[in-house]
Amino acid sequence: MSLKGFDVPAEFTPYMLCNATTMLKIYDQESFEWFFGDGTETGSGTTGGGWVYSESGGLVTVTIPFGQVVIFVPCELEGTTNTFNSNMGYILKTRVKVSPYVNMIGFNDNKVIIARDDTSGHKEDLKFFTESLDTQAATVSGGDRFNITSTAGYSEGDLVVYEKNNTFYKIVDVVSGTQLRAERSIDDTGGGSAQISRMNQGIVFSGWAFDGRCGINGLGGSVVDSTRNGGGLLFPYCGNSILTLKGINCQTGLNGGFISGEGLSAYLNIRNIVSCQAGSPSTDGQGGAVYGCHHSSFKDIRFNKAYFAGGGIAGCNFAQARQFYACQALDGYSLTAIGGGLYNCKYSFIEMIEDCRSEGHGGAGFGCDYSKISMIIGNIAANNGGGFCDSDYSELSNFFRNTASDSAAYNCNNSNYLGVWSGNTGGNIDAADSIATITYDGGSYVSSSAESLDL
């Protein structure tokens, strides 16, 4: 086959794998556009590589098909210099919809880079996204059954989100043409829509970097987005997936500087997000790196910022969050900054939050109730809670060198305090807090107030 007068090499031709998936190799800009499109397509059809596209108002959307495996090598020809090192990158000129079980593998995220085309008239929209595979109104019966209009297309092992309260369930049995059985009892409380949505699973993005070209932290680019969520990946309805690509220099005017799950995604492995931003001086945003991905793990989140809340991540309950460094919450358009590293991440395991900063409250985190929080080092809040603020019913331990006008842990009521607390400017624990227990040096202290206690 050929494209624009050149012969496509044999190894570039897709070949079949098991389970009706295909594998292909991308090695230069022309081979990249053979599949991902060049942004000039009109109407609807397929790219040279056979992927379906549609165009509306000049914006081209390309769909990566179910089970597609894409292997990237460093771009050899006709790409662009990215904004964080001198290596050449592929230029993304279309919006890309990702289907279940798509794998995009690059093996070296310093050399395999996809950079947004910041000369496009639709540059803010050039990102990767997922959508619900099916959404239907649902009622609950028998404790663990969803009743819907039709179970066609559903199978054992599907993951669904119940949008009445954004809880997630694995389907263990298609009981009938109108009923699904979940793996556990269904929580039927909440004020959201009484509907379920079937989620994308098995997506792997690893070993490559996405450069949003948004000019964050002095990096290059000219993309400024003021109205969208998810600066690089807009991934609602995504679960059981690995997103360990490097996200860098992405920005959104709302929530999720690099990734937004919209509160409708879960069970994700996310790491290595650098210099991304949510919100702006004219818009309030949450989650400088990530917003709304529950039951997920986060690691190596660095130099991200949010204009309002959660310089690292926000709205990610049941998180495992480790190794956050130098993230910032800045005062937003209308709201005081809270949570330099994390905001509103309840029921979480939080460890090693270092050198984060808030222009308001909670240098490391804010609003992380019912969490286990440890190794909180060198964080700064302009007001209260150099480490954590407003994180009740939690276990807090090992706070070092945090700075605030009042306390390393502020308004964290009914919590347990353990380990070593040292060098915290502004004090260790807010004197007005109600304390469950304080344990250190082999002793255990139970008090209704932290006043006069020196850890």
Helix content: under 10%
What is the C-alpha radius of gyration, as a whole number of Å? 23 Å
Number of helices: 1
What is the averaged pLDDT score? 90
Low-confidence blocks of residues: 1-20, 441-455
CATH top level label of the domain at 134-198? Mainly Beta
How large a portion of the residues is in β-strands, by DSSP E? 35-45%
Instruction: Tell how many strands the DSSP assignment holds.
Output: 49
What sort of overall outline do the alpha carbons produce when their principal axes are compared? globular
Structural class: mainly beta
User: Whole-Å distance between the termini?
Assistant: 72 Å
CATH fold group of the domain at 134-198? Elongation Factor Tu (Ef-tu), domain 3
Give a quick account of the main beta sheet: strands, pairing sense, barrel closure: 33 strands, mixed
> What would CATH call the architecture of the domain at 134-198?
Beta Barrel
Considering the chains and any ligands shown, give keywords for the structure.
455 residues; mainly beta; Elongation Factor Tu (Ef-tu), domain 3; 33-stranded mixed beta sheet; 7-stranded antiparallel beta sheet; 1 helix; 49 strands; globular
Describe what is shown at a glance:
This protein is mainly β and 455 residues long. It contains one helix and 49 strands.
Detailed description of the structure:
With 455 residues, this protein is mainly beta. It has a domain at 134-198: Elongation Factor Tu (Ef-tu), domain 3, CATH 2.40.30. The chain has 1 helix and 49 strands. The chain has a 33-stranded mixed β-sheet that branches. It is globular, with a radius of gyration of 23 Å. The model is unreliable at 1-20 and 441-455 (pLDDT under 50).
